[in-house]
Amino acid sequence: MNKPSNRRENAISPFMNVVLNGGFAVIALACAMPVVLVIMVSFTHNDSLLDRGYSFIPEKWSLIAYESLFKDYGTILRAYAVSIGITVAGTLASVLLMALYAYPISRQDYPLRKFFTFVLFFTMLFSGGIVSKYIVYTQGIGLLDSYMALILPLLIIPFNVIIMRTFFQTTIHPALIESARIDGAGELRIFARIVLPLSLPVMATMALFSTIAYWNDWFNALLFIREEAKYPVQFLMIRVLNDIQYLRENVQLAAQNPELMRNLPNESLQMAMAVVGMGPILLVYPFFQKYFVKGLTIGAVKG
């Protein structure tokens, strides 16, 4: 009679547990320190930045960066509304479409699986370029100055589709699909009632990726948006930074208003814009965190 295996042999010793927890704490602190530094610099006066450089404890506190940024707070709030609307609508549509693409190519019995997988990989390696993209969006489908021009380019991200396909292949057992089909369920019902509920971790992970992509996107606004009322917050921040940089580099204006140029924020304004831009993502991320690692690793091969 075989003796039961002693599972305590693989347990981590208390010393190693302390070492691992301490190491992870140091890594977490190293990740948080740049964010704290950005926040501190955004509240630092320009004179202190010129004299001492960046510091976690400002020598001279100042709100001039935020005052300059929110002088026209209506524009900031409107840009926030545009970014939030595009991010929410784009994320929901993107996750659904990527799931609808990934699920069929994960099925071994789908006859066109290899063809659509090849199309997916091909778009990862080659693209039509910016010029052709601009012509198609503006002249082909007429999306100049349209919110759809900010949503469509990020709807299907091939790498995210591959992650979802791998998850479906390794997690959704074919027996579940066969049993549902025997019970009379169609493909759409199987996808909605069985596949999606079992795929919540990867769906949440892809939703996080899409949220970050839409929120941080400014290049498509640069290409397709001309009306200032439709600027997303990231592109608006770039415009503000460019305007400030132009004022600081204007020699004639600096000679006429030396006091204005001296008090005009530069480094602190950049950090203030970073704080304003990353704020919503920092609030959203904790809701997806518990699904993040699970969604990326649950599809791995288990031994």
UniProtKB/TrEMBL annotation:
Q: Where in the cell is it found?
A: Cell membrane
Concerning PROSITE patterns, the annotation shows:
ABC_TM1, PROKAR_LIPOPROTEIN
The cross-references to Pfam families, in alphabetical order and at most eight, read:
BPD_transp_1 (PF00528)
Arranged from A to Z, the UniProt key words for this protein are: Cell membrane, Membrane, Transmembrane, Transmembrane helix, Transport
Q: What is its main location?
A: membrane
InterPro entries recorded: MetI-like (IPR000515), MetI-like_sf (IPR035906)
Topology relative to the membrane, per the entry?
Multi-pass membrane protein
The record places domain ABC transmembrane type-1 at: 80-288
Q: Name one GO biological process term.
A: transmembrane transport
Q: Which GO cellular component terms, listed alphabetically, does the Swiss-Prot or TrEMBL entry include?
A: plasma membrane
Cleaved signal peptide residues: none
Ranges annotated as spanning the membrane? 20-43, 79-103, 115-135, 147-168, 190-215, 269-288
Organism domain of life: Bacteria
Report the sequence similarity comment from the record. Belongs to the binding-protein-dependent transport system permease family.
Q: What is this protein's name?
A: Putative aldouronate transport system permease protein
Q: Which organism is it from?
A: Cohnella lupini
